[in-house]
Amino acid sequence: MHHPRFRPAHHALAAAAIAALHLGAHAQTAAPATAEAGKLTTITITAERRLENIQDVPVSASVLAPEILDVLNTSGQDVRMLSGRVPSLNIESSFGRAFPRFYIRGYGNTDFRLNASQPVSLVYDDVVQENPILKGFPAFDLEGVEVLRGPQGSLFGRNTPAGVVKFNAVKPGQTAEGYGSIGFGTFSTVNLEGAATIPLTETLSTRISLLNQSRSDWVENTHEPGLTQDLEGYRDTAVRAQLLYAPHKDFSALANLHSRDLKGSARLFRANIIQPGTNDLVPGFDEKKIATDGKNESELTIVGGNLRLRWGLGGVALHSITGLETLDTYNRGDIDGGAPPYNFSGGAGSIPFLSETADGIPTHKQFTQEFRLESTGSGALNWQAGLFFFSEDYKIESFSYDSSAGSAQDGYQRVRQKNDAYAVFGALNYQLTPALQLRGGLRYTKDEKDFNVEAYEFNTFAACFDPGLPAPRCTLADLQALGPTAASLSDSKANWDLSATYALNKDVNLYARAATGFRGSSVQGAGAFNDQSTARPENNTSFEAGIKADLFDRRARLNFGVFSYTVKDLQLTAVGGAGNANILLNAEKATGRGFELDLQALLSDQLLATLGVGYNDTKIQDAGLAVSPCGTTQYLFGDPASPRPNCTVTDPLTAGGKALIDGNPLPQAPKVTASFTLKYTQPVGNGEAYVFTDWVYRSKVNFFLYESVEFTGKAMTEGGLRLGYTWGNGRYDVAGYVRNITNQIRVVGGIDFNNLTGFINEPRTFGVQAKLVF
């Protein structure tokens, strides 16, 4: 059994590193790149693996610019800060900062196991990040974040039927430049960030980027003595070092090394915070207090690197992208969210069922290799073709503890998963007429997965489903006697996409796209609460059409599209229920339809506004599919003779008490997402004062596959405000900010097997920031 160890990080060291970045580059005063006077800046994306104007690409796409990322990072937020910032994007986590789950157009995966796959792929610097822990790498010093909605299976490998979120780091160049930023906020939050490009020779340059975020514990554990007395603090450090060698225009080599080191609190599960019969917080709820008797900790290390090579070979270019990612993580929490006395009263902190667990990945390796050949000519026909290889091998450890016995360990399980995938792909772009461009892509994938339970040992017979077993302890042999503990899965699939762009004029394009996506089979091992389960591969077929327009002499930009998709054999995860299970299953199909709207407008030379709206109507369609709803172990007013269910289920029930979920929306799939920003600038003295506000809204969501009153997350609106002053041609900036300005506290996820346990969003925070660009 492995527990990672971490070296302490100090703010002084991080600050010194930022200072070193500043001194190591030859500082120069230069105004940042600006748009043509009175016009919006052209936005470019790499949705087709080439740099193109977003208005010319026939796919629903949005870009988060570095400016908004800087605003959000300043307050110490993690990658979940991107949720809702563009239409139809939702991100949530039951692991805190360590394990984000992405959803596009309502399509995602709520599975909390460390070997879970997701239908939204995250690509960081051209390398896919498959394991859900890797997807949480911080977003800093980026050219931007691209969100590509709908299947992207032709050009991007690994599980993209819902879409791709693509992070692009700022690359080294031949100009010495960089920045340093320091911010201080509520709960002793400190955000240190900096980067510098340093030309070493005429052909060699480097860029070093650093982020260090920390916060003190701000939640008090009122239970005495608590194993973890103060909670919700963290220290999260990430570093990226790049080296670019470009001796001439026909060859370049870009090497990238990066790491992340996180230590802090795991997600806080809070017992009985939901009022029975409602989805409201209980009266008197205090987000700064909790009563819990278990231990809480979260530790994570990621180390990785990649090498991107490009050769110009006349009319074609050859790309090689090699990536290696490793991680080591351990996350422990008191899942029941309560503490003694266990009086079953239903009040804050009381619990009828103990659950304290931990999960970790002590060993992990992901290797990827892609070769891609593309045409570089200027003719009507352009093409690209390539090969892709993916290999992942890791072990997962799971622990359980007896909270009533001082949190002594009483169970252990270790599983191993290996996954290899091979793909060949190609794409064509053809300018049929000056106004009409056609595109098409095809990809064939072979996906193989091996899963095996290597160790299993629990103190209770119930962990092996049979209290009558004669052995004094449940072992791996007992588990194997009850059913399979290993699985070998193999899938093959060809995916395609076809699209067309028609230019009505130089400012307005119409587009239409049809595409398919694929996610390979999944497996979850047998354990303390359920048998082993597998899910067949799922396949998505999507159609969309829209308009992309620059308006009013490029003072406004409108992107609008409608879509419809059908996922056959949708992989779902039934989590919780009366038996606290984690079971994979397939729905016959699920559908989604809706629209996305992106609007940017210069309302005046000093006032810029953006608006993003996504509408997603999703439905599970399987008449006979039923799952276990919440348990019945909660008692009413402390009377064991008056039990009540843990929630009010609104779905029809089978004779066996299961909930029929046909017609339900997908979990964590808000029907409406909306974002709005407004920035006003005013020249003052030798600089510019500005006011920036940003708002995000999402409608209600289901936490689970079944529908219930209590486990329906209420609609949520979060806003931010930033007041600042910039001077020295944009070189210096100071600002004050507030996040979650209305201090709206919502339950954003729950635990249904035990009691009305939930977890919440972050409260209001304030702070200041100073930034230097050089």
Features:
mainly beta, Maltoporin, Chain A, five-stranded mixed β-sheet, disordered N terminus
Describe the structure.
- With 774 residues, this protein is mainly beta.
- The chain has one domain: Beta Barrel (Maltoporin, Chain A).
- The protein is 4% helix and 55% strand.
- It contains 3 helices and 45 strands.
- The strands form 10 sheets. The chain has a 22-stranded antiparallel beta barrel. Strands 3-8-9-6-7 form a 5-stranded mixed beta sheet. Strands 14-13-17 form a 3-stranded mixed beta sheet, with no helix packed on it.
- A hairpin with a 4-residue loop joins strand 30 and strand 31.
- The chain is globular, with a radius of gyration of 26 Å.
- Mean pLDDT is 89; it is low at 1-34 and 343-349.
